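Feature request disguised as a bug report, sorry. It would help if multi-protein outputs had a clear separator. Right now it looks like this:
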Amino acid sequence: MTKYGQFCPIAKSSEILGDTWSILIVRELLLGSTRFSQLQKGLPKISPTILTKRLKELETSGVILKRKLSAQRGHEYRLTPAGRELSGVIEALAVWGMRWARDEMEPDDLDATFLMFDIERNIVTNELPDGENVICFQFSDLDDFSKWWVICDGNNTDLCYQDPGKDVTAYITANSVDLIKVWMGDLPLSAALRDDKITLLGEPLICDRLRKWFPLSSAASVPRPSESERTAI
């Protein structure tokens, strides 16, 4: 943990949250992840060693609690009151990042694995037909991990990057960059559909209700800065 040697509360907060991955671990916990494997899905580029280390540091700092699961193997991680109070900080960072930080996006930032996990946990399952629905996402520009399956059954969802061997009820095909743009609100879904940047094939009840069960990122509605805001001094 970096030590700044200052009594400033910003410095002390940065000592706890400023290390690589720490703030994103808090983000994932606020979004409902509680298991090590769930955190790995939300942070696909973190190594197990670093994740273990950061979780221990956050536990020591009083941000999270690690608890053994009853009647089953493994542990779960929960935010303490101090950790939950970071929700406003995370929301402020999301807004600021959508407005001011995304001009710095690089190709490596456009991670389809994180996109699919974010889609899976945000699907509005009660807008899908009753019973099991299997939605296959196909990325035309990727060689690896070019197909993903989201299995929805009631309120339960499961994300697979290997064919689960189930009948697919709908296919969504897109360039990964275009789908990320739609998910983040940079490209209107209606325009992507009109221009065939996203194509759908499958059961009409699923395809016709795409806008209802495919909600977009929670940050997609953040207004972008105007040109006058960008150039104001």
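(second protein starts here, but nothing in the output says so)
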Amino acid sequence: MKAALLIIGLIVSLPVHAEIYKYVDESGQVTYTNLPRRGAKKLNLGPVDTPAAPAARAKETSTPTDFPRVDSSTQRKRDDLRRTVLQDELRTEEHNLAEAVAAQKTGEALRSGEQAGSASWRERTDKLRDSVKRHEDNIRALKKELASIK
């Protein structure tokens, strides 16, 4: 029984060591196969790389023990400075958003002789709408960044 299992295991594992051939026909079509044919070139693919185990990956990406460390008070000062800069940027963006919204309201009003939906009116309102959206996106990004500070 053990011998039969060994033979079956060997037969099943034979394709694992199969050689790969590349064949290009007259029309230029490339075919890869494990069967040798006239005009085919044998490819030397080398060993197959497998993904590292999770523990091995964690070991590879961990910080080296001799890596310079920043003490907590220095890091706290850096975080405070970063928070201050981001809060200043947020106030500026909120101010710019208020101005953009006001400009959009003014810009959407029809000028004398201009019709709603005309090309010039649409172009102007699209630019104003894009400006408002850009400031809203900036505010959202700044708030997200502020929330990530420890």
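Even a blank line would do. Unrelated, but nice: The helical segments are 2-13, 54-61, 72-108, 119-147.
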